[in-house]
Amino acid sequence: MRILDVGCGVKKFPGSIGVDRNAASRADVLCDLDHFPYPFRDNTFQRIRAIHVIEHVSDVIRAMEEFHRLSSPSGRIIIVTPHYTDFSSFCDPTHRWHLNSFSFRYFGADNAGFGYYSPIKLREISVHVRLLAFWRWLGFELLVNRLPRFRRFWEHYLCYVVRGKVMEFEFEVIK
């Protein structure tokens, strides 16, 4: 399986091809992640991992389109990013975007009515929201992740009190 680790930094995923803009990283390929296309052929990778990267790029939609281009049909895209209510979302001055668990809906089947922003399609395999430890102990994390309607209620009304920490997404590429 060919895996691309986008923004791999110094912790490149074992067995993957790492791409990063920083020469001090463990990247196999150096390139600016804000300039497209990346130096790989279409449909090259079965998995693309972007762990704490998407919040740094200049254009989230264009980056997702590039991940889609690089993925093989039915490939998987894994994204991990801070929830916008977490302190870490705002304490890093290189973070350009502050996202929530519905931020990638443009690429889904219903596209939230905004399908004209991008032609690519992704099927959401999973969304997992990690909450701050206190709320996890009280069972809120279980509710947020098991009940999609509760997750929507949490995002709309509770997330500034019951704060999110990190979100983990997995998508299947539809071509």
User: What's the CATH H-level homologous superfamily?
Assistant: Vaccinia Virus protein VP39
CATH architecture assignment:
3-Layer(aba) Sandwich
Task: List the total number of helices.
Answer: 5
- Proportion of β residues? 25-35%
Topology, number of strands: 7
Structural class: alpha/beta
Number of domains: 1
> Radius of gyration from the CA trace?
16 Å
> Based on CA inertia axes, which overall geometry fits?
globular
Q: Uncertain spans, ≥5 residues at pLDDT below 50?
A: none
Element order, helices and strands? EEEEHEHEHHHE
- Major sheet size, sense and barrel closure: 7 strands, mixed
Could you tell me the CATH topology label: Rossmann fold
N- and C-termini, Cα separation: 19 Å
Helix and strand arrangement:
Blueprint: E1 3-6, E2 17-20, E3 29-30, E4 45-51, H1 60-70, E5 71-82, H2 87-91, E6 121-131, H3 133-137, H4 140-146, H5 148-158, E7 164-174
Parallel strand pairs: 1-2, 1-4, 2-3, 4-5
Antiparallel strand pairs: 5-7, 6-7
